[in-house]
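We store amino acids, tokens; thus:
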Amino acid sequence: MPETTQLQIELIPIEQIAILNPRVRNRKIFREIVSSIEEIGLKRPVTVTKRGDGQYELVCGQGRLEAFRELGQSEIPAIVIEADTETVLVKSLVENCARRKHQAIDLLQDISGMSKRGYTDVEIGRKTGLSVEYVRGVGKLLRQGERRLLRSVEAGHIPVSVAVEIADADDEGIQAALQQAYEKNILRGRKLFIAKRVIENRQRKGKGLGGARKTRKNVSSDALVKAYQEDTDRKKLLIRKADATRDRLMFIAHAVRELLHDDAFVEVLKTENLDTVPKNLAARMERQELTR
């Protein structure tokens, strides 16, 4: 994969630059890039390579390129190198791996992309500056769909070696892995607390980062009896509340009916234009009157 060392800086039309390995950008960070370029200009040109048809392929600098486009610019300063498509893709992946603030999913995609292009774990580690153990661990967690553990590894909460042990173990094995990590002084204090919480969420919500995992559990007879008893208790409570409400309504209806038999009280109501009674209350008082 040859590449010349001679560098050329040119003004390249943005529309002539193709992005081979597009990334989804964090909007907050992207706005910071746009603001920085708008205020002080472009500090570092993007890197491109020229194709045979006169168009260009972006090697690195997608954020800067998109910021220029956002600011309404038609051209961007670019370092032009000679590189084939394979080199362009690898350089783009390496740049993404080297970004200071990248999400676990980004790192996962970058390592996966290089692996799919035929690079070994050793080669990926050498090109990205990551340890071979880290590359192998991330690859394994990816294949097993362990997105929740990956995020914790990337955040520095759980070492990749411990995360791989957790991914391969059952409940008893997970506890043993945590115990060993504690004894080796790998997980202590706050990190151990976070690791336990991650494991609890993984067991409750699944390996991914979405909603709760739907599982079917075998229900015992004792559990059914307990659930039935709890439901019965709830219904009894509702009945008691309904009875209490009914008694209060009957008392109010009786009190209002008695007051309406007081001519002086009725005159006061008429003076204040309050001599009407809600239809339902009037009907209830009439029924009570008939049953006296």
Remarks:
- The first helix runs from residue 27 to 40.
- The chain is about 60% helix and 10% strand.
- Strands lie at 8-13, 17-18, 46-50, 56-60, 75-81.
